[in-house]
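Proteins fold reproducibly. Consider a sample protein:
=====
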Amino acid sequence: MLDNINKYVRIPPFHKNIFSWGLKTPFGIISIWSNKSICLERYIANENVIHCVPEKCIGEIIGLVDERLFSDLGISRYPESGGYILKEQVAYSEKLENIYYQIHNRQIIINHIPHRSIIDVSLENNKETLICPDGSTLHYLLPSAIKNVVSVLANKEGYLGLHCAAVEKNGFVYIIVGRGRSGKSTLYINLLEKGMNPLNDDLIFIHSDGTAINIKAIPLFAKFRLSSLPFVKSNIPFPEYDSSMTIEHEIYIDCENRYQVKNPMQGKIRAVIFPKINCPVNKIKTTTFNEKKKILFKEIITQQTTTVDTNLLNIYKCFKEIPFYEIELSEDIGKACNELLNILPN
């Protein structure tokens, strides 16, 4: 413990303004602690947000808002790759003491060294810390923190993260794979408009026993760019954009409530789809595992353990037996979805 602790504690333990929640996931309950009230209902259904009982939680997120810290340091950018960038003209000041935080049982120290300040926001086992300049940034980063912690918990059960969108019907899962802005979320929402069930628009967890690829999903709401709204033809209005909840031009969509369906949160992968948006005409064609395996396996998040290696080998074998499709999407995405649904295996 540090000497003269009062000098370091910016947020005292168990302060009356510290908020806590429990979040149910397919791999256990994680706790979320913050000095700022967080609108978790913007990301996840209320039924998955419960009273926080620390001894029942197997993962933890600390979300701090410290405007003064960012002002003192002259930080000019948002967090990237586990750190913060300082403005070039800001030099080290002897007045900048190391800062000590404690919330619940979590301790965070910000170390100041000449010309550089280090804020440790890296994932420590099943715990993650976010230190943000304002509430909008905290709200923007929190879903990613949830995914990071759940990924660690999933890996402990032998599951791998797969960066993709995924929809479900009758126990079968159809995953949508591609790089950023390829149309994953756009195709995801359009398939939900056609009667598919939501799993997740960004991340699922996969495991294989050698006979099939089973998935689990976090029931987080879909994050959708405002620029993609014109590509969805729907009679149901979308949520209003709220700049206080994000630092990007995007909205969160509660797909279960919007389409009056239940997120099954599990299933078996039946097909893989690679979209390409902004094409002159709609076009669907079959492709092969060998043609797409590099793209697919780049999206798998692995922790490199013996369990993961065995699972990865089984996943590789099973993907070779699953049909792969490429779909080019024009402005008439609804028609493309109808054509796709007619050829997808069930």
